[in-house]
Amino acid sequence: MPKISDERKAERREHILAGARRAFAEHGYEGATVTRLEKATGMSRGAIFNYFPSKEGLFLELARRDNEHLVRLWLDRGWEAALREVVEEDPDWLGVYLEMTRKVRTDPEFARRHEEHAQKELAHELIAHVRAGQERGELRDDFPPERVAGFISLVANGVVLQMGFGERIRDVDALVDFVRASVEPPRARARPRTPARTRS
Amino acid sequence: MPKISDERKAERREHILAGARRAFAEHGYEGATVTRLEKATGMSRGAIFNYFPSKEGLFLELARRDNEHLVRLWLDRGWEAALREVVEEDPDWLGVYLEMTRKVRTDPEFARRHEEHAQKELAHELIAHVRAGQERGELRDDFPPERVAGFISLVANGVVLQMGFGERIRDVDALVDFVRASVEPPRARARPRTPARTRS
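The joint structure predicted for all components is written out below.
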């Protein structure tokens, strides 16, 4: 058998993940049969499952990457950029997440594997990031950083569910404005008013 | 055949709905087979489908009632009471909603029937209620009432999704506080500060 370079292997993994994502989005989790995964990736089941342990492993890897992408965006460019990115997501792919909630609730083994993919270090990084924002006076500090981060995440979940139901977010700027009012300290929002007028 | 009074009919409908709700919550939508619905209600399939057109009809009626209950609560006792009620919901039943998102997105016939159950009049009543709150200065008025109501609903959706994933809402008071900061006008929130201190 010819030896495949690490680079080529990484490429194939990416190729499989991209195809699987499309198949899940189009057919749902259950509907994305192995045959459909083969069609979407243009690869045989043998080849696919050489790279991933199972269909579930494929899904968990895609979910893990989405989470990492969003948290990195939050860390690098702020919660607003991350929230706007969620609004841009493919509603069909978000729908697959929603389907999986039942599995997380009812299948302890799946819940455990889902938890393993939860990237706790990244979550800690995010809390530290929010705490730093509080210390700079950019975020309200009358609640611990976990609550502030938790509220923003909860709003993102609301976006996911609304879009999963096929309803667009009609006014993203309004959404961002509501969240800003909820997580910034009242002073930060009130601040520009007086000095700006005096100066102009 | 003995004639059944309207009162007895209404009772039976309620009895079937309560049993169906438990069966959906325990087994999921697909898992709540007709046999399981019979067991949960203690009634035969013939009797059940004498009162409801189908399993789907049962689900849609339950969803319609939940929506009506929440909107009435909002109208009568405010958005905070409605939001707290969502937090008290059975996560397993909420999970059934989440399962249905795929059906709403992918089955146009189901989406149409779901839309028919949407209670547009109730939605109009809610918008009028929010507008009145804006006029009294209790809600911010820099966005139309649809946006304010939409943000609160989106947060409720976030609660549904988080609980559907089996995660509790750890601090409901904090959640309410964040939403209050986002939907009340800054003056309403800033107001108590100075006078309260002067008076004490």
